[in-house]
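Figure 2 data, in text form.
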Amino acid sequence: MAYDYEKAFALTDNPFSPIQPLPGLNMLAVQNALDSNPLLIETEPALEKLFSPNAGPFGTYLENFKRFARREGYHDAPPRAGIKSHIVSIWGYEGTGKSTLAQVFIKWLKTCTPRTGKWFIHEEWSRLKLTEVQRQLDRIDEEHRAIVAAATANSHVCIVADNLISGVLERILELYDQLTRDRIVFLFLISSDRQLYPQLSGQSKRSINPFRMRALSEEDAVAFIKHRINEFRVPRENRPPWLEDDSLFPFNEDDIRSAFARGIFYQDADTVALRDFSVMVNKMLTRKLDAMDDDFDITQNTEAEVRAYMIWLAEAYNELVAA
């Protein structure tokens, strides 16, 4: 059983769920199980290297958000903050990257420095998964008290109301109304609840700026793998020469596209989410590593010899399902 990602794959770590602390990380716990958890970039900037803007609509939505915010007086260069409050919704099925997108929005918004000097950020909900109405209502009340205590009049505040379910939306909007009487608030409403979609999509009387996440496409999947592999590839001088022509090793771009074109991952569904794909390729990588000999060294093998250690998605997926 191998244990060294560098010798096995010419990678400094597991690209989908790193097992070594990322440089600059403050709280090690937020790096746990990053194949399935959101990237809490706002609180841990070190996680930004894992953010793949092209693995879905992330990059496009960020640019759209910036354009909207700039029209409302929020600018990063030179930095200044507007005086209007806004509600932003992010709706999508489980695992499509909603919480990560909100974190990216807020990270940029923080560069729009208010006259008071900083933003008050309340995004603890993204670390919780409260599924009962009463527990979410209690959480809103807790947040209300915490914000009032921390953010004085004229403060700029970001609130992330994550994992929203039916039965609590009116209460969180009441919170927004109360706080915006003397504070500037960006409220991010995040949900996968189908019943809330009409209200969160801007169809209600409320002025809401909606962003809808989508399932993973083959282009998204290729971009995700490519970004993560490139981030964790060993320095050029430590790579075997043949790797220059096989930059996604142990994956293959044509194979990724083929797997999506054939619907390999869909089974009973007609889509696959980014989180599901991330979990799958992480398992595929670790299983391949476990199957390799301890003394395997990629630099001592030819491309033809190493080809036996490629991860072919259809084959690897069938092995996961059968396990």
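Caption note: The mean pLDDT is 90.
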